[in-house]
Amino acid sequence: MPEVTVKGKFGGTFKAYLARPQAPPPGVKNMPGIVLIQEIFGVNDVMRRLADDYAKQGYVVLCPDLFWRIKPGIQITDKTQQEWDLAFSLFQRFDQNKGVEDLGSTMDELRRTPGCSGKVGAVGYCLGGKLAYLMSARTTIDISVGFYPVALDAALNEASKIKKPLMLHIAEEDQFVPHDVQDKIQVVLGKNPLMTLHKYPGMNHAFAREGGKNFNAENARIANKRTSDFLAKTLYG
After folding, report:
1. Which of 174, 179, 198, 229 is catalytic?
2. Annotated catalytic, 198?
3. Rg (Cα) of the chain, in Å, rounded?
4. How many angstroms separate the CA atoms of 229 and 224, rounded?
5. Looking at the domain that runs over 3-235, which CATH code has it been given?
6. Where exactly are the structural domains of the chain?
């Protein structure tokens, strides 16, 4: 699949991986879109496969390079300590506010893309899980899903801004999200009827990352099915 160039809100351009369905579902002319939000490893093979999978479900997908201001084109894995060190370095240097602005620009680009119906959702993983939450609070995205979001407790003051459906998948044994933080997330977000929170007992961070050390096929299947049903209800409903 090709890359497209997205113009930033306040200048600059960045690349985004584009995945399209081979054909629209029967009776559908224009398909909804998904902004797919990367982990801390960049727009790598994992993210591109996810984009292709969502395209097969009937979505036009854009996965933007959010690290472009630091170093464009990052595509690393979770297989070596050197790559983990680089990933955490990028995460620490990443400006999340500008990242949400870039995601908003990606959303706008997607809505202008031929073949897109204008309805657009967001799905993010890890860092992207938090950014999906922030998109729900700060942009006009139609629906959002976050897998094992990190550092969400620092953004719970924005929960009241969420006006569109949001689903979060929480790994109960997430090494990056202590139990007390999970409890706080559930208490605060549980007050919003647009919020759906699923917890996965015994699961660690990135349990849905196929090929990762914490991958669990059954729980990944459950989370992916919940996500697909949730998205389709709003974007195809």
Report:
1. 174
2. no
3. 16
4. 9
5. 3.40.50.1820
6. 3-235
